[in-house]
Amino acid sequence: MSNPASPPAVGVLDQGAALTFPPGFLWGAATAAYQIEGAATEGGRTPSIWDTFSHTEGRTVAGHTGDVACDHYHRMPDDVRLMADLGLKSYRFSVSWPRVQPGGAGAVNSEGMDFYRRLVDELLSHGIEPWLTLYHWDLPQPLEDAGGWPARDTAGRFADYAQLVADALGDRVKYFTTFNEPWCSAFLGYGSGVHAPGRSDGADAVRAGHHLMLGHGLAVQALRAARPEAQLGITVNLYPVTPATDSPEDADAARRIDGLANRFFLDPVLRGAYPADLTADLRKVTDFGHVRDGDLAVISTPLDMVGVNYYSRYVVAAPVGSGEAEAYWRAPSCWPGSGDVRFVTRGVPVTDMDWEIDAPGLVETLERVHRDYTDLPLYVTENGSAFVDAVVDGRVDDPDRLAYFDAHLRAAHAAISAGVPLKGYFAWSLMDNFEWAWGYTKRFGMVYVDYDSQVRIPKSSARWYADVIRRNGLAAQ
């Protein structure tokens, strides 16, 4: 659907940057390994859960897979030159675990790790800061066969893998984040089953969430020991959760969803404890017997920064009749113990993912993390939108996406003005890619990808973003 807001034209910043970001603000863009790399069976790479999932009939739209994706594995130097042309100061990418440690155990696969060595060197040669994410959902399939994230052993395996990556790349990579959006790995992968590995069990989802955080803590300890100078963090996807009305029942529904969406991860990582109300809500799902003495101390190992992925707001209401929601990521099985809560649509503009556009929610989210949890530097590690794009006369104009970025960058600036220590922003995504269960039907990129020819075409939003970076600011409205 179209955003009715009128976006500023490309080049409008020539009027002068009315909103200037702090010196050294880190401007970047983000991708994920399985979504762009392709080369699924090359260089010693073995299957991940997303290879298995996408090759299972009925799991992805039209049976799409990441086998080829954007062919970044072969086109990496050109893609880095494209980043440099856009003026990116940093590039957030993920390492494919099954590419560098096939099977999730044992020695490094040198050919696989060499790809990331070349990538890091290429970025640095163009003055682009590498920002490395250790895990963006591609668990090696043998680890899933052994129990996956619901199994405690997977956390230890992840720490071993983190050590291997730090040994290979830590001399040139300053920024490491352990996990991208552990909520999705746990509750979409093991709760609703709409993401890999496609399992659907509430207790497994809760256990997976805990073991993801345990793996995070163990990995931070391993990284800190190997590279004490590195900046270490985690990326969580957060949502402001608003009750549909002022009723106590709707307020309680918002509390429940906020517990699962936000506090399930923020509290253990940044406070070293699960919220009491959340564990009470989940009592009918699990007794938390999987939590052992000392786990929460490991999970809350001190960090250097926190990454926030922001896309939209949740508006919720108390149960009445069916709790079934329209969108798959809001299905009841995503919310163990609270699947009867209703998600309410408000009739505001939405993206092609049917996600409501709510830029003020970014301010609210960043202020909350800073006010309630931490003084650590914060980074918006993902923010972006899918819209339907078309190539016309060799160009791709995407005014809706441009307007989305403009509004959310203004929100980011407002958060900084309110005292939030926001140090950087990564647009999602650098280029169109494999959008998980949606396959290639949803386009988030600032750069258009023709999947048949692999031609890249910077969209108007990319040219606009390049101008924002160059000016380190935004024009007056």
Topology:
Layout: E1 17-20, E2 26-30, H1 33-36, H2 49-54, H3 72-85, E3 90-94, H4 97-100, H5 110-125, E4 129-135, H6 141-145, H7 153-169, E5 175-180, H8 182-192, H9 202-226, E6 231-237, E7 241-243, H10 248-271, H11 276-281, H12 295-299, E8 306-309, E9 314-317, E10 342-343, H13 360-372, E11 378-382, H14 399-417, E12 422-428, E13 447-449, E14 456-458, H15 460-471, E15 473-475
Parallel strand pairs: 2-3, 2-12, 3-4, 4-5, 5-6, 6-8, 7-9, 8-11, 11-12
Antiparallel strand pairs: 1-15, 9-10, 13-14
Protein name: Beta-glucosidase
Catalytic activity: Hydrolysis of terminal, non-reducing beta-D-glucosyl residues with release of beta-D-glucose
GO molecular function, one term: beta-glucosidase activity
Q: Which sequence of strands runs across the widest sheet?
A: 2-3-4-5-6-8-11-12
The averaged pLDDT comes out at 94
Per the principal axes of the C-alpha atoms, what is the gross shape?
globular
Number of strands: 15
Compressed to H and E, one letter per element, the order equals EEHHHEHHEHHEHHEEHHHEEEHEHEEEHE
Distance between the termini: 23 Å
What summary fits the major beta sheet?
8 strands, parallel, barrel
Q: Count of helical segments? A: 15
Helix content: 25-40%
Annotated CATH topology: TIM Barrel
Keywords: Carbohydrate metabolism, Cellulose degradation, Glycosidase, Hydrolase, Polysaccharide degradation
GO molecular function: beta-glucosidase activity
Binding site for substrate: 35, 136, 180, 311, 428, 435-436
GO cellular component, one term: cytosol
